[in-house]
Q: What sequence folds into this?
């Protein structure tokens, strides 16, 4: 029998995607650089479906029906290039090479262009959902040609998560579009996690609640508008008791957050595109700061607030924090979607944000009820310039803003760091401001560098003769 698809790279993600494909009735040819992984997969899970075990790339390619579909699930970076170099010469025009790893979208663009010359469709597909998602239904974000999606889409939609019967997989756009949106997805994930962590910290320090009590708070929040995978697992983590100490696990975990790089890429690219993704940036910086043992040790003795009024935080703080979290989350997602819009415009991808919100409702780490609201906002006749101004979100922010301000003010008063909450509020207030102090910055720039400024009342560029008689001249 000929296999419908081949999977090369059988570490946790590749093996689980291969099993998912086989469980959906596809014959899957499987290959790994070190054959022991292939053997282990067949021994442990061969009974789950039809697998063809292959020892070499040649065998894998020979096992496939045409046009061939080969899914690469190896470590991103040089390993992916090595695997492409191995497989490309074995393929024919019309065949498809799919990279399901966490590649940088610029690498995907480069690889797609090179393989296109050979007539091979290169598909950079973002896959979210971790190990479990790969096995039970991930959210899949494939880029590449529309033609390749015709041949590949049905199979990917088959194994993707489903929400209301709709698969969490859609063609995102040409070349690097899929990996770009996966990158921003991860950036949003960083922001969302940071905001949840700040909410936990505020309630722990501000109200003195225990992790177990806070697990109940997050579990309750998960029943409402915040309902999401990340809130759900937060409750689970907070409830976990450490076997060694008998105390909360969260108290014995070292407070240094690590990162693999997609959040950092999101911010780097946002800087290049000129998109203010301050919420994502603060989340990346907060992780970085947490790891700076040297800076933290050197600053540990610095004073906190000298006088914290006793009983200044009451029961109503819980609801204030919930609303502040929701409002900040809206900002983080709005910024992420802005970045996707900017990337799409820059590279001519024509990404449909509503379709993206749809496929993020299930399978992926940022899955949330809230994404249905984003989908609705982008499917409305009046496309929002910013999600903040879309009717549902504008109303949610209106309802939340007093709480949001109280929480950020209280955090400053108590000396609890809330970089995510406060940058989100600053973004909101900056966007809605009638006038920004950017006018003064333009004045300063003109003073020291004759950079000129524009006026609100006349066309043209102007310069004040700062070191002369301080009259204004047209530049
Ligand atoms: P890893 O990222 O740990 O990669 C291990 C695989 O890469 C093994 O199959 C290994 O083969 C293969 N490999 C390496 Br390393 N160098 C190779 C080379 N030069 N030639 C051929 N094969 C090579 O696996 P993973 O955690 O399953 O992730 C796979 C991809 O999926 C990554 O890009 C990852 O970023 C992405 N991803 C992961 C997750 C997650 O939750 N883990 C989620 C979403 C996406 P070997 O067995 O011979 O060493």
A:
């Amino acid at each position: 029998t000929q296999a419908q698809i081949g999977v090369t790279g059988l570490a946790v993600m590749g093996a689980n995607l291969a099993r998912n494909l086989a469980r959906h009735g596809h014959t899957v040819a499987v290959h790994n650089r070190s054959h022991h992984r292939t053997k282990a997969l067949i021994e442990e899970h061969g009974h789950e479906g039809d697998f063809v075990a292959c020892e070499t790339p040649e065998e894998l390619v020979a096992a496939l029906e045409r046009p061939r579909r080969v899914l690469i699930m190896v470590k991103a970076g040089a390993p992916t290039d090595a695997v492409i170099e191995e497989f490309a010469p074995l393929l024919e025009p019309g065949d498809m090479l799919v990279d399901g790893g966490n590649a940088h979208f610029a690498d995907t663009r480069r690889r797609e262009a090179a393989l296109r010359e050979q007539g091979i469709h290169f598909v950079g597909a973002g896959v979210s959902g971790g190990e479990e998602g790969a096995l039970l239904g991930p959210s899949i974000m494939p880029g590449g040609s529309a033609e390749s999606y015709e041949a590949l889409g049905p199979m990917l939609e088959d194994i993707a998560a489903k929400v209301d019967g709709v698969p969490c997989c859609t063609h995102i756009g040409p070349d690097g579009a899929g990996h770009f949106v996966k990158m921003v997805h991860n950036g949003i994930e960083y922001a969302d996690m940071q905001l949840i962590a700040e909410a936990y910290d505020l309630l722990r320090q501000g109200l003195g609640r225990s992790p177990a009590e806070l697990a109940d708070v997050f579990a309750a929040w998960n029943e409402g508008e915040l309902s999401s995978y990340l809130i759900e697992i937060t409750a689970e983590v907070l409830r976990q008791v450490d076997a060694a100490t008998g105390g909360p696990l969260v108290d014995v975990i070292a407070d240094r957050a690590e990162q693999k790089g997609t959040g950092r890429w999101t911010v780097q690219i946002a800087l290049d595109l000129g998109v203010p993704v301050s919420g994502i940036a603060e989340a990346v910086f907060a992780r970085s700061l947490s790891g700076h043992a040297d800076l933290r040790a050197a600053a540990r003795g610095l004073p906190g607030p000298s006088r914290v009024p006793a009983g200044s935080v009451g029961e109503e703080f819980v609801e204030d924090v919930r609303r502040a979290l929701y409002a900040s989350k809206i900002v983080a997602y709005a910024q992420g979607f802005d970045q996707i819009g900017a990337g799409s415009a820059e590279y001519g991808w024509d990404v449909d944000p509503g379709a993206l919100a749809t496929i993020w409702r299930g399978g992926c780490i940022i899955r949330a009820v809230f994404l249905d609201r984003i989908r609705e906002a982008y499917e409305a006749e009046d496309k929002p310039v910013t999600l903040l101004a879309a009717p549902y979100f504008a109303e949610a922010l209106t309802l939340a803003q007093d709480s949001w301000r109280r929480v950020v003010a209280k955090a400053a008063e108590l000396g609890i760091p809330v970089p995510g909450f406060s940058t989100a509020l600053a973004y909101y207030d900056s966007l809605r401001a009638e006038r920004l102090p950017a006018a003064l910055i333009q004045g300063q720039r003109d003073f020291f560098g004759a950079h000129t400024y524009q006026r609100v009342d006349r066309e043209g560029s102007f310069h004040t003769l700062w070191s002369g008689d301080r009259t204004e001249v047209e530049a």
The chain is about 55% helix and 10% strand. Residues 302 and 343 are 42 Å apart (CA to CA).
